[in-house]
Structures are given as structure tokens and as C-alpha cells.
Write a structure and sequence with these properties.
13 strands, alpha/beta, 26% strand, nine-stranded mixed β-sheet, globular, two-stranded antiparallel sheet, 8 helices, single chain, Spore Coat Polysaccharide Biosynthesis Protein SpsA, Chain A
């Protein structure tokens, strides 16, 4: 198998951070002394991933100046700027030439996990003939995020993005949601083969007016390819607002 590369989505403004992101992109907010994005980059490198592409947008130069070409970290880092913020489905296409014919780990630039998570993902990907890996975390409130349903081999069967209460009730009636079983949330970290770009190229805008990565994932599953699931062990933090940031800073 070819060495896995990495693509990090770090283009958004992070409006929920309010004034904290007036001059900084959200992934450059500091957690325990260093930017969120630096924690991610160092975690990827510790896994043996040496080629990283960061997709920038809001205050792109802050990220680009901080990381440079990556030699400080013993890695090769490249950048692409997402000029139009039109969703997560199109953003990875900026890294298509960088990916070439190599598989790549794709993560949002504001999600913190233990570095071992990246290594576990690469192991899971290598363990079978998979089109990719999708990470999940268990939860209770089924309306919070993307819901994932798996088969007996923990391969993805179905994905429902931010279901409405009516959809949740229908999922219960149809047996997709079982009492006492966890709801598997999309954790926002993936591995894909370059064939992902065949599916992002065909995306239509969602009702939100954006190109959604989850629509491409659903199309991959519908085509009969296997996406392996992986439950994240230990830490998983979506640094979505100032309260989460404050908790991380306090070490709680």
C-alpha cells in the first residue's frame, strides 16, 4: 500500500468563536501553548505521515507563515486556498494533485484526538479492501450530528446528516435506531482513496446551499464500495466554541 498522506481542512472563519477569530483562523487558536492545528500536524507526523496539505481560507497567511514548508517538523507541507467557502465537499479537491494516487487521511482543522487515533485509522484501512475509513464517536442525542449506521463488520451502511425529529422517529420505526444501542456520530476524520474525487466532482448543492462531503460518502456506499468504521478511543474534542476552548485550556 502506498504511504498515506494527509489533508487538513482549515479554511473556515469559525464564527462561533466570535471575536477570537477576528484576526486569526480558528485552527490557529491556542490550546495549552500551541495552535490547535499544530497539535494535529504533530499527531499526524508521529504516525509516520510526512506529506501534509492544508486548505486555508480565512486569514490564510497566518497558517501559511506559521508552518512554512514543514521542514521545522520534518515534514513536507503544502497549501491551497479555498476562495469561495462553498462546503466541505469541494474543499478537498484543492489537494487532488497533491494526493495523486495515494490514499489520504482527511481531518477538520479543529478536531483534537490522541495521536494513536491516526495510527489506528491507518491500521484499519490496511486491514481490508476498503474505499476508506470513517471515524465515529458514540452519543445519546441523535439530532446533534451526522448519524452513521454499520453492518456486522462495522462497515458503513447508511449515513443521515443532522436528522430532524421526524427523521429520527422514522429511523426508530424502521429499526435503524435500537433502544440501548449507541448513536454513532460522524467524528470528522477519514481516510479515502483518491477515487473520492470522482464522487465530489458529481456533487450537487445541498438544501443548505453547500457541497457536502457526507453526500459524497453516501454515494461511495451506494456504489457498493466498503467504508470501514472506527470508533475513536479516548479523547475526541470538536473545538467549536469559546466554552470548549476554555475547558481545554483549564485541562478539564
Amino acid at each position: 500500500m502506498r504511504a498515506v498522506k494527509a489533508i487538513i481542512l482549515a479554511a473556515g472563519k469559525g464564527t462561533r468563536m466570535r471575536e477570537l477569530t477576528q484576526e486569526l483562523p480558528k485552527p490557529m487558536l491556542r490550546v495549552q501553548g500551541k495552535p490547535i492545528l499544530e497539535h494535529i500536524v504533530e499527531g499526524l507526523i508521529s504516525t509516520g505521515i510526512r506529506e501534509i496539505f492544508i486548505i486555508t481560507g480565512w486569514h490564510a497567511e497566518v497558517i501559511e507563515n506559521h508552518f512554512g514548508n514543514g521542514t521545522k517538523w520534518g515534514a513536507r507541507i503544502e497549501f491551497g486556498r479555498q476562495v469561495v467557502q462553498d462546503g466541505t465537499g469541494k474543499a478537498p479537491e484543492l489537494a487532488q494533485a497533491f494526493a495523486g494516487d495515494s490514499p489520504f487521511l482527511l481531518t477538520y482543522g479543529d478536531i483534537l484526538v490522541h495521536p494513536e487515533t491516526y495510527a489506528q485509522m491507518v491500521q484499519r484501512f490496511a486491514a481490508g479492501d476498503f474505499a476508506g475509513v470513517i471515524t465515529v464517536t458514540p452519543g445519546e442525542d441523535v439530532t446533534k450530528g451526522g448519524l452513521n449506521f454499520f453492518d456486522a463488520d462495522f462497515c458503513l451502511k447508511r449515513l443521515v446528516e443532522k436528522p430532524s425529529l421526524a427523521q429520527v422517529e422514522q429511523l426508530r420505526q424502521e429499526g435503524w435506531l435500537q433502544p440501548g444501542q449507541p448513536a454513532w456520530y460522524n467524528a470528522g476524520i477519514y481516510i479515502f482513496r483518491p477515487s473520492l474525487f470522482e464522487y465530489t466532482a458529481r456533487l450537487q448543492k445541498s438544501p443548505r446551499g453547500e457541497y457536502e462531503l457526507t453526500d459524497a460518502i453516501s454515494a461511495i456506499v451506494a456504489s457498493g464500495q466498503k467504508l470501514a468504521g472506527l470508533k475513536i478511543q479516548g479523547r475526541w474534542v470538536d473545538v467549536r466554541d469559546p466554552e470548549v476552548l476554555a475547558q481545554l485550556e483549564s485541562g478539564s
